[in-house]
Amino acid sequence: MATTEEKKTLRAKLEKYEGKLNHMYLDSKGYVTIGVGHLLSTVEEAQKLGFKDSNNLKASTEAIKTDYDEIKKQPANRLAVFYKKHTKLTLPEIDINALTDKNIASFEGELKRIYSDFDTYPVDVRLALFDLIFNLGMTNLKNKWPTFNTAIKAKDWQKAADNSSRAAPISAERNKYVKDLLEKAAKAKKDTGVAAL
């Protein structure tokens, strides 16, 4: 189980790299999104959330559909703030935080399905894997990263670091963050190994 400290670090990093928006927007692939990279795959999913109107009153399902449909019509891969002018509703921070917590719990379960000994990995490795699965999704991480996954399962953190880079639109800074986490774990493992000799 992710510790409180891990969740705090994870939330801060996800907010830094994904952003934290209280209005609907399109992600880099053109999917309607809210909060900290939370996918809204259907209008019905959006309508289950506690959106508020400009008077801070609960938005109607019709108003949520209007915002959702308006966002879907916009061009993809723009800065998230571009979409603000096309929305009338906002999602309260408490709801955004709840969605993020739900996503973290869901991704943790998925990581444990991919890596049976996930709980035994160093904190830095777990944080790196959380960042990857949040961005790639379980299916892509599991099926399209064979060299990386072999390294993780072998606890070869350096090889995993060398194979952790994602393509654009992922920033070089975000890729470096994940690589640095894995290299830190590799160094700690090496130092521990040397000390044990």
Question: What is the compact description of this entry?
Answer:
The protein contains nine helices and three strands, in the order αβββαααααααα. It has helices at residues 4-18, 43-47, 61-72, 93-114, 123-136, 138-143, 146-153, 157-162, 172-196; strands at 21-26, 32-35, 38-39.
Mean pLDDT across all amino acids? 92
Helix/sheet category: mainly alpha
How many β-strand stretches?
3
Largest sheet data: 3 strands, antiparallel
Uncertain segments of ≥5 residues (pLDDT<50)?
A: none
- Counting DSSP H or I runs of 4 or more residues, the number of helices is 9
Overall tally of domains: 2
The share of residues in helices is: 55-70%
Major sheet: arrangement of strands:
1-2-3
Distance between the termini: 32 Å
Please give the radius of gyration in angstroms. Answer: 19 Å
How would you spell out the order of helices and strands?
Answer: HEEEHHHHHHHH
Bulk shape: elongated
Beta-strand share of residues: 5-15%
What does this entry look like structurally?
- This protein has 197 residues and is mainly alpha-helical.
- It folds into two domains: 18-97, no CATH class; 115-196, no CATH class.
- It has helices at residues 4-18, 43-47, 61-72, 93-114, 123-136, 138-143, 146-153, 157-162, 172-196; strands spanning 21-26, 32-35, 38-39.
- The protein has a three-stranded antiparallel sheet with strand order 1-2-3.
- Strand 1 and strand 2 (32-35) form a beta hairpin.
- Helix 4 packs across helix 5.
- It is elongated and about 60 Å long.
